[in-house]
Structures are given as C-alpha cells and as structure tokens.
Amino acid sequence: MNRYWKSLWSVAGPVVCLFILSGFVLAQVVDNPYQQDESAAQSTEDAGASAQPTQPNSQAGANQVVNGGGMMGPDYLLGPEDVLTITVLDLPQMTQTVRVENDGSVTVKLLGRVPAAGLTTVELKKELEQDWGRQFLEDPVVSIFVKQYHSSPVSVVGAVAKPGVYQLPGPRTLIQVIAMAGGVNLPGKSGSEMSGGAPAGRWAFVTRRDGFGHVTPIPGLQQTAPDQVKVDLGKLMYSQDAALDIPVKPFDTITISKAGIVYVVGDVQKSGGFTLENVDSLTALQALSLAQGCAQNCNMKSDIIIHSLPNGARQMTHINLGKIMKGKAKDPILSADDMLVVPGSFGKGLLGYGWGTGLATLSGLIIWRGL
Q1: What are the tens digits of pLDDT across the range 197-215?
Q2: What do you get for the CA distance between the two ends of the chain, in Å?
Q3: Containing H/E element for 128?
C-alpha cells in the first residue's frame, strides 16, 4: 500500500506543486494589478532617456530658400562687392561663397565667370540652373543667399536716432529709409527735454549724386539745387501724400534738419528755449504763449526781439506786446536762435516785485550772448 502511494505521489506530486505555485503567482498579480503597467512605463521612460535628440537637418534648412533673395527679399539688384552664397540641392560639393567683382561678374564652379550685376537673385538663380543643366548637371535646383550687401549704400545723417550708412536691399522710399535709421528724433516738452538728441526740424534734404533733373514743385516738395530736393517732414509723415514719399536711390544722402530754438526770457511764467516743431518760425505772441504768458510784473510796452543774423551779428527790434495783443500792431516773426525779451515793470519793481525778474532777464541775456 505504501508503495502504491509513493508511486502515485511520484507522478502527481510535481503537478500538485506546480498548481500551488501557479496559484501563488496569480495571487501576487491580482494583489498588485499595476505592476505590469509600471514596468512598461519604466521601460518606455528608460527608452526615451537613452534615445538621442533629433538634430536639425542643416542641409534641408539651407535648401528651403530656393527662390533666392536672402533676408531682404528677391527684388534686390546685385552689384559690385556683394557677397553671395550659392548652393545646389543635394550637391554639397557645389556650395560656394563668391564676391561680385567690379566688372559685375561672379566666378562659379564649372562655368567660370558669369554676369551677375543688375540681376536679382531669382534671375541669377535661373541663369545658373539653365547653364549648369545644359552642360553639367541634371535638373539642378539652385539657391542664392546674399550674405553681405555692399553695392547700394545710402547715407542718413542729421536728427535721426541712428545716423550712418545703410545698404538698400531693394527699391525703398524716403519714409522707409528714415525708418531704417531708427526714425527722426522727437522733441520733448521744452528746449532741454529732448528724446534721442537734437529734435528733427521741418525738412528732409535728399542729395543725389547724379542729380534730379527738373522737379515740378508741389506743396511740401521743393528743389533747392540741381542735385538736391527738400521734403516737408510733417506733411510727409502725417498727410500720407505718396508724391512726397520719393524713391531713394543708391548713393543718395538724406539729411534730416535739426529743429531751431526760439528763446523767451524776462518776466514770463516759464522762460527758456522752445523748439520750432515742423515750422521755421514763430510769431511773438506764439512765443509768449509757449512761455505760458506774462508774469505779474511784465511790461507790455517796452519789449525787445533780438534777431540772430546769418553773418553772426545781432539786431534789436523794439515792440509793444500790448498793442499786438489788441490787434493794433503787427505780430513780428521770430526765427531760429531769436530771443524775445519781456522786461518787468520798473514801477512794480520799486515795490519789491521786480528785482528777481530783472536778474533773471539779465542772466538770460548773458547766457545767450555767451558772455
């Protein structure tokens, strides 16, 4: 009997043990149903950590610009000293950087000298594709990038934020070129409170090396010399008159005039220098209003305008602000660097009110005369 059970156990024992072990493993899985998910997530995490980041395809990026033009657009006309980068799709050995020679040509691989000056990058691209495709390459796709612009300089000077020499990247107008130089300097509230240096005056002068020929004058545009015109900045900026926004050509010089200053000193509410914004002159009453009018002790009968003459001399003109305010006398004109002097009343000064005003007037005159 014992032999029978031993024989049975020798056959069924391993099966029973395997069944018990399987039940135990199954119980462990049921007790922790997220074990497999966590393991899978950990495996995915490890795989992500070990994966190398994707590098950008610099060759593909370079070949995206197949129409030429670089950053400045396809309307730029190539000229001497411009530097070009020429690439051919899927042929890195054809990539080269060339400079446009003084004769207007560039030297490219397999073709030698090829005319380039006066062409846009799109036109040069088509020429190279045709020449290379006709003799050496099968359906080449050419890209041209202007690496350096040197052939179309224009100078911007005067009352602008960033005066200097700029390269025209294509056809540009006066407003666009002024914007390239950071725009005109704007005046502050009064003479010394300026933003960006000296404020811009009324005019923009455009000087052209080859001259303008005959220019028909229109409001806001005048020809001052065969090679120069002047444009009213106020009308140019705010009237949106396209006739004033003239085209700018290579080698032009644009000069933004600096605003003049009219001075008011004496017995006024606010003495100082006042900017001529978009105008060439002010009347005496306009200057007085900028100084916020007369103070308590001002003399309205014995006022003076000191004119600055072109030769450096000064000329004094006596005026009567009282009569001017009543319309009984003409309101005189003050131009840049002129001074309106409004003295205090001597009688009121004797009562103790006018000595400070007299000293302020005298100090202003001394500073203005440079004594």
Answers
A1: 678 999 999 999 999 988 8
A2: 141
A3: helix 121-135
User: Which of these, 276, 330, 277, 270, lies nearest to 305 by C-alpha position?
Assistant: 330
Q: How many domains does the chain have?
A: 3
Strands, sheet with 96-99, edge to edge from the N-terminal-most edge strand: 96-99, 83-88, 142-148
Does a structural domain hold residue 45?
A: no
Q: Residue 90: what are its φ and ψ, rounded to 5°?
A: 65, 10
Query: Rounded to the nearest 5 degrees, what angle is found at the Cα of 133, between the Cα atoms of 101 and 99?
Result: 15
Which region among 10-19, 240-249, 304-313, 331-340 has the lowest average model confidence (pLDDT)?
Answer: 10-19
DSSP code at position 362: H
Question: CATH number of the domain that 176 lies in?
Answer: 3.10.560
Length of the chain: 371
pLDDT digits (tens, 9 = 90+) for 265-300: 999 999 999 988 788 899 999 999 999 998 888 888
Beta strands 153-158 and 253-258 are parallel
**Residue with the two structure tokens 């200057």:** 287
Q: How far apart are CA 208 and CA 205, in angstroms?
A: 10
